Amino acid sequence: MDSQQHLFSDPDISFLAQAKLQARVLVPVLRAIRERIGREEADKLVADALRDWSREQFKQVASASQDTKLGHWQTIWGDVFKKIDEGFEMEVLQEDDATQDFNVTHCPYADYFQALDEPELGALLLCEQDVHLADSVGSDAVEFNRSQTIMGGAKFCDFRIRLHNKAPKSDKA
Fold first, then answer.
1. Residue 32 class from Cβ within 10 Å (0-12 exposed, 13-18 middle, 19+ buried)?
2. What is the CATH number that goes with domain 15-163?
3. Rounded CA gap, 172 and 117, in Å?
4. Which residue has the higher pLDDT, 147 or 74?
5. Nearest CA among 145, 144, 138, 142 for reference residue 173
6. 139-171 residue pLDDT tens
7. Contact by Cβ (8 Å): 157, 103
8. Cross-strand pairs, 161
């Protein structure tokens, strides 16, 4: 996998459009599995599979990166912000070389998945990607914290990010 090709790198498709395409396939499959084995087991099965897939995607991108871990984060995080859809609102609390603190106060992704009555799937496809990206980079470069999401029913998503400028180059797998 080319280090520049990752979940967020296609400039022609927004996050919401990508999530809607994924949902068109996953929602009927998830609902069929629920009918067969029950909601709890089905949701766990799908969640585990999507988490494993996402972590592997970010692990491959990180292992291919020639940049510092922090540079790797900044490249992908920059791609994320290029793809944020209209209707997405946030309040910046602090932004400098070491800190990115902001609250998302309106999320069209949460609106969409809540309308489908599938906010847990939306959280897996969208919200958890931030966590997997941070994990792939490593806490020596980026500390990512979010205690709540609109997708999970909160009034806002609280992003608290600490950047460590002395992080080493990305590890090779």
1. exposed
2. 3.30.1380
3. 40
4. 147
5. 138
6. 888 899 999 999 999 999 999 999 887 645 544
7. yes
8. 100, 144
Which pLDDT belongs to residue 61? 72
Sign of the torsion formed by the C-alpha atoms of 62, 65, 66 and 71: negative
As given in the structure block, the two tokens for residue 172 are 């090779």
Q: Tell me the pLDDT tens digit for each residue of 1-31.
A: 444 455 555 667 787 888 889 899 999 999 9
Report the C-alpha gap between 107 and 90 in whole angstroms.
Answer: 9
Residue ranges per domain, the chain?
15-163
Concatenated DSSP letters of the chain: --TT-STT--TTS-HHHHHHHHHHHHHHHHHHHHHHH-HHHHHHHHHHHHHHHHHHHHHHHHHH--SBHHHHHHHHHHHHHHTPPTT-EEEEEEESSSEEEEEEEE-HHHHHHHHTT-HHHHIIIIIHHHHHHHHHH-TTTEEEE----TTTT-SSEEEEEEE-TTPPBPPP-
